[in-house]
Design goal:
Layout: H1 15-104
Amino acid sequence: VGTMMPGETPPPAGPAAAAGACTNCGILQQNINAYVAALIALKQKMIDGDRLLTEYQQKCTDILYLEISALRFQVEQMLQKILPLEKCQEELGSLKAELEEKKVC
């Protein structure tokens, strides 16, 4: 056994020390396993979160596309209704002008 410094305690020797070290190694291994399992679970949650976010964004895009398509359709329908009304308005203006001329005469 080497020379010891003042205040230093000698390392435990014998089978009891070996058993204590094995117990500590076992506890350390359990802690490492639990830590690794927690990291794997966290990574899986991150992957799941990314997947859910991507699905949500896709749904938002789909809904937006459907709403824009519906609005375009409504605008086209309104334009189809407005065009004949504009023609009628022009014809009414012409008739009104003719009536005014006849009144003057």
